[in-house]
Amino acid sequence: MAIHVRLDRVLLERRMSLTELADRVGVTIANLSILKTGKARAIRFSTLDALCRELGCQPGDILSFEPGPADFGDDDDGYAGA
Predict the structure, then answer these.
(1) Fewest CB within a 10 Å sphere: which of 13, 59, 72, 77?
(2) Please, what are the domains in the chain?
(3) pTM of the entire structure?
(4) Residues 15-44: pLDDT tens digits?
């Protein structure tokens, strides 16, 4: 997948633990861990909003798009483009 999660870097910069962030945002540590390790397949905008609010950052600070050769034209909607 070409979307990468940089939550660990943002947490390190803010000197905040995953446990503290989970408490502030109201998301379980398990779900944040799934997100942090890049195993999440989706994120709710309300969760992203809460993360950005508590971390004082923008969505682009947490998520990045880094396409590789295997990712070009390989999306989940079955449409490879023209």
Answers:
(1) 77
(2) 3-65 (1.10.260.40)
(3) 0.79
(4) 999 999 999 999 999 999 999 999 999 999
